[in-house]
Amino acid sequence: MKILEIVGTNAPKSYNRLLLAYMQKRYGSANKEISLLEIKDIPLFNEAYFSEDRPASVQNLYDQVNAADGVIISTPEYDHAITAALKSVMEWLSCEKDLMYQKPVMLVGTSLGVQGTSRAQDNLRQILNSPGLAAKVMAGNEFLLGLGKQKFDEQGQLTDQNTIDFLDECFNQFLELAQAN
């Protein structure tokens, strides 16, 4: 099984990147290849580039999403929404016909505040449900990690066992969704 993780920010330091790196290390195995995709080099969406002068970073995005059995997106929350960089990535993805159609997607996120990324995940879920994407977003198990700075140790490991157990439960539900697809 191939799983693609998308870092939902172009910021150089991100607890969401740390979360995905943790998940990659914890859940990757011989039968679960998990790769991490940075979006910092993907340009802002421009319809003029869609067909003829498609940037290599966008083609790489398409190729990785197409090859994946499932996608995990980790988003920070900026002003109750996803980042502009991640929104642009969603716009690129929505223009490639059927690329995300019914693709299993798990949303995760961490922030410095106490609410985690609840509003950003709602925003992203709404975008992923749009006709251009029509992804199969995992329902019911939302991983919202508040106070992210306090939840990781210096080695990038989650420190709270209840948080780890809940992440395990969410990831296992995602695997069931991806395997059923």
From TrEMBL:
<feature type="domain" description="NADPH-dependent FMN reductase-like">
    <location>
        <begin position="1"/>
        <end position="147"/>
    </location>
</feature>
<dbReference type="InterPro" id="IPR029039">
    <property type="entry name" value="Flavoprotein-like_sf"/>
</dbReference>
<protein>
    <submittedName>
        <fullName>Flavin reductase</fullName>
    </submittedName>
</protein>
<dbReference type="GO" id="GO:0016491">
    <property type="term" value="F:oxidoreductase activity"/>
</dbReference>
<dbReference type="GO" id="GO:0010181">
    <property type="term" value="F:FMN binding"/>
</dbReference>
<dbReference type="GO" id="GO:0005829">
    <property type="term" value="C:cytosol"/>
</dbReference>
<dbReference type="Pfam" id="PF03358">
    <property type="entry name" value="FMN_red"/>
</dbReference>
<dbReference type="InterPro" id="IPR005025">
    <property type="entry name" value="FMN_Rdtase-like_dom"/>
</dbReference>
<dbReference type="InterPro" id="IPR050712">
    <property type="entry name" value="NAD(P)H-dep_reductase"/>
</dbReference>
